[in-house]
Design goal:
The chain is of the alpha/beta class. The chain contains twelve helices and seven strands. A seven-stranded parallel β-sheet has the order 1-2-3-4-5-6-7. Helix 7 links the parallel strand 6 and strand 7. Helix 5 packs parallel to helix 6. The longest helix is centred in the last third of the chain and has 20 residues. The mean pLDDT is about 95.
Length: about 300
C-alpha cells in the first residue's frame, strides 16, 4: 500500500480511507500495510500503529491485512513491536529480513534470531519481506522451508528476481498453510503458474485492477493472448513505474481521478516534466489496455 500525506507532510487519513477502498473495489485479496511503499521508515512508531489500525478498521474483515513489525533496535524491542502490530488486528506480522542480521553476518546467525523471534512472539503468525532496505537479504529455499515447517510463517514477499529460486521456495513450503507473493513483474505469470499465491508489487499501486485481472486469469486457456499482453505491458513500462517512486504512483492515481497528494517524505529524486510526461503516457496506455480487457 501507498501512504498518502497532506501537503504539510502529515498522514492524510481520509485519503488513506479512499485508497484502501480503491484496492478493495479493484478486487485485492489482501493488503500489505506499513511497507516500503508506505514509507514505513519515515513514519514514527505511533504513526505506523495508527495507520495500520486505520486500514484494518476500513477493511472491516473483508480481506486479510498484513503489516511490517520489525524495525531498528534489539531483538527484544523488535519482538515487542511485533506484538503491538498484531494487536491492531493484522492477519500476520511481517519481518524485514535485512533487519534481523547485519549484511556481514551469516545465515546461521540470521536463522538463530528468527527462531528466537518466533519463541518470543508465541501464537503470532509471521511473514518475511526481502525488502531492498536497509539491504536486501534473500532467503534460500532451505531456510524458508525450515521456517514454514514451524507452522508460524504463513507469508513471504519474494524479491529474488529469479524464477528458479521462486520455484525452489514453493517446493520447500509445499503442504503447509503458506503463501508466496512475488514482487517481480518480469516473471509474474511464470510465478503464478508455479504456485505463487499472488503478486505483491509496486505496479499494484498504479493499476490494482490489472494485477487482480492477471491473478484471476493467468491460467485461462482462452485468454493467453491477453495474459501475454498484460505481462508485456508491465515489462515494457517497468522503468517508468520505478522511477521517482512512490511519487510517480501517486501522480498516476491523480491522473485517474483519485484525490491524493503527491507529497512524499522519502527522498526519491526530482519529479521532472519528463517523468511526469512518462507517467501521463503510461496512464493513456493503461486506459487503452483496460478497455480491451473490458475492465470496469
Amino acid at each position: 500500500m501507498l501512504m498518502p500525506f497532506q501537503n504539510d507532510g502529515q498522514i492524510d487519513y481520509p485519503a488513506l480511507t479512499r485508497l484502501t477502498e480503491l484496492y478493495l473495489k479493484a478486487g485485492a485479496s489482501g493488503l500489505f500495510a506499513n511497507c516500503l511503499s508506505s514509507e514505513m521508515f519515515e513514519l514514527s512508531a505511533q504513526e505506523r500503529l495508527q495507520s495500520i489500525r486505520h486500514v484494518v478498521d476500513v477493511v472491516g474483515g473483508a480481506v486479510p491485512v498484513v503489516a511490517t513489525g520489525t524495525f531498528a533496535g534489539s531483538l527484544t524491542e523488535q519482538a515487542d513491536f511485533v506484538k503491538r502490530v498484531y494487536e491492531t488486528g493484522t492477519e500476520a506480522v511481517i519481518v524485514i529480513t535485512g533487519l534481523l542480521a547485519e549484511q556481514s553476518e551469516s545465515d546461521a546467525v540470521f536463522n538463530e534470531r528468527v527462531f528466537r523471534l518466533l519463541s518470543w512472539t508465541p501464537g503470532i503468525p509471521l511473514g518475511f519481506y526481502e525488502c531492498p532496505e536497509p539491504y536486501k537479504r534473500l532467503l534460500s529455499a532451505e531456510q524458508l522451508g525450515q521456517f514454514v515447517q514451524t507452522g508460524r510463517v504463513i507469508y513471504h514477499k519474494d524479491t529474488c528476481l529469479d524464477i528458479n529460486q521462486v520455484k525452489a521456495k514453493l517446493a520447500a513450503a509445499e503442504g503447509h498453510p503458506f503463501g508466496l507473493y512475488d514482487a517481480y513483474m518480469g516473471h509474474a505469470v511464470a510465478s503464478l503458474r508455479a504456485g505463487a499465491a499472488g503478486l505483491s508489487c509496486i505496479q499494484g499501486n498504479f493499476f490494482p485492477e490489472l494485477i487482480v485481472w492477471l491473478c484471476d486469469n493467468y491460467d485461462q486457456p482462452h485468454l493467453q493472448t491477453e495474459v501475454e499482453e498484460v505481462q508485456q505491458f508491465f515489462i515494457r513500462n517497468m522503468d517508468v513505474m520505478h522511477h521517482v517512486y512512490p511519487i510517480a504512483a501517486k501522480y498516476s492515481l491523480k491522473q485517474r481521478g483519485i484525490d491524493i497528494s503527491t507529497f512524499t517524505r522519502r527522498q526519491v529524486g526530482n519529479f521532472s516534466s519528463a517523468v511526469r510526461q512518462g507517467v501521463e503516457a503510461l496512464s493513456g496506455d493503461y486506459l487503452t489496455l483496460s478497455r480491451s480487457l473490458e475492465l470496469a
